[in-house]
Amino acid sequence: MVDDMSWRHDACGKTQPRSLPGPEDAPSSIGTVASHVGYRQWTEQELMTRGQKICGLEGASTAELVLALLDQRLADIDEVLRQIAGRRPIFSGPENEYDMEDQDDEHIRQSHALTVQEKQRLLLANRLRRQQRVIRDAIHQHQQPQPSTPPPGSAGHAQKNQARLETLPYEIRTEVVSLCMGYDNVRDGTATKSHFISQVGLKNIQSLRLTCKGLHDAASPELLPCITVHLTEDSLSRLRQLSQNPLIARRIKCVRLALPYLSSSVAKNEQSFCFYAAWLIKGIIAYNSQKDIDEAIDPNKIRHLNSLVSQWDNLIGALSFNADGTPHTDCTMDTKWITQFNRHPLLVEGFARVKERYLEYQRLLDHGHVAEGIAEAMGRMPKVTKLCMSDMAWDHDWKTKYYLSGIFPNRESMLSLIAAPMEWGTFASLPPKLTGQPPLEILTGILPALARRGVQLDNLDIQLTAPSDLTSLTPSDAALTAAAVKDLQVFRFRMVPALFNFVRRRGRDSRISASRIWGPRPVGQMSSLNKLLDALLKSQNLKWLWLDLESLKVESCGDRPTGGGGGGGWYLPAVMKARKWPHIRKMTLSSVCLNSKLLGKFLGDGPLVIDRLKDAHVSRGTWVEALEVLREKETKSLRLETIDGASGAECNIGFNDMFFLTPPSPFCREDMINLYQYIPVDKPYLALGYIWGVVDENPLLM
Which of 6, 262, 519, 562 qualifies as a FRET site for 112, CA 20 to 30 Å off? Predict the structure, then answer.
């Protein structure tokens, strides 16, 4: 065994005997370096001299020096093994429990008989043997002929560089990244898909960013497919900085503009702020009392909140009010009332925050270039094709914000709630002098600004609570507004009622008179909204139209969920206008006024799916004629999934609107068609059955 350890492999792989010269010998060549361990230990000076000789070899490449050092180390290990072997041979003892199973029984008995000192000697020998194997493999690798490198500029050199991930074009790397994401790149009108990242996609991005610089640069922008902009200096500054970053700007696809605002009345005097804060918390309590709350709330916390609101009510009780419902400030009692107000730290700190935020908000509006600044930043983002605008904040959880369980975790959450920018959908029912109105001029001004910079949208989403005055929606430039959306493919426009003006009783929604914050709109206000929709509906590339005018229906039709008694005061000619929509494929219509004589031209002749026709109101023509048009279209190119409620024309008389009730939710269209043979003729769903062709007679003529 000892003799075997004194052999080495030469450059050709053959074994050669190794001599054991003393420390005075020098290496005769780079390929073979003799052992210098000997029977005595080297001095420090001898070690330094030896290192200088190896490093000072003239004409030796880095690879040759590495090979010489490895060969020297192997010779040293051989000599150490010879020294520790002594008179007894060193057995290749078991290195682990798996090797032990393969050893001969005699070797196992001998290894157990070793003394402690011999076991240590055996352990050292085994560790040196492992080093021998590793070094021999390394020497063998260094002695292998290396493939020649093509000279720079040659075809082979270019082909090799193209195979490296770092040198691939940026577009190819981004395509690799997109295959790892948790979403599609298909544009659509939903609130997910290509503009938001799933949890799986986020983890994939994080992994890709740690892979190499090429994938890091390609994956990092995917973290921001969508950016939300608020009316604050920090948010606008962040938008500007991101748009100036070429790596991030070219991957942003969607911009969401949130229009929560701040009222001057609430921010400038303590009385109005106290009234506003108390109204907000009481509204949340009332809202939750009508909801099915999933999480159990500590009764002590509820009592604490009620006690807090009672104290605020006592402050409000000392105030007098103007005819418009706003608190009146009396100079004689102002000092005393302020003293009482200062005893409530939550109100004091909340008022200070609101005042500070209002000053910043007012500076932005006074500057007058908010819409231009946003449009300029979007102009530097080549892939931005979707714009969402809303008078609500996009980045909060409604359950966390307006459910009682969401405002209890700590004092800061309560403070953040009463000092947050106001959302018009929440406070629209308060006196207008107290709440003011959101800056809708930004909404109508941003589209012309985008058109001036050549930005073309293919997806536009507008969600608003009906403002107190619809004239604020008049487009600042109708021609430029239409130019910004000439390639629009998906358009969603929703005008919904205020949040805290609904009452839920055991799962059923029924509106109370407070839902009608304003009466039917004057002709001038409806004309402003009609001009806006007319400009936004001019795209000939439209594929999906989603219209929801629920707020206008509530204002015009009274308290009945299905209408009744209304005169169709929210009819918009721009909606029923016959248009060239050769690519239209889907419609979602809710609370829309219909004209039965124009309905056929509005639907067009191409294949079309109406996934929902909810609370439609016929204000021009009759429902009999509307059903005939829908039935005729159904036999050719239309697919109507469901119809839910109806009003206007014949449906304002008696109970004819019962024929327009929604089928039970577990049933799909095909199930309902199969079940129609079991439905008596005096039961609901007949209107839908007539449209589908499974009921022969128009139910309104029965």
Answer: 6
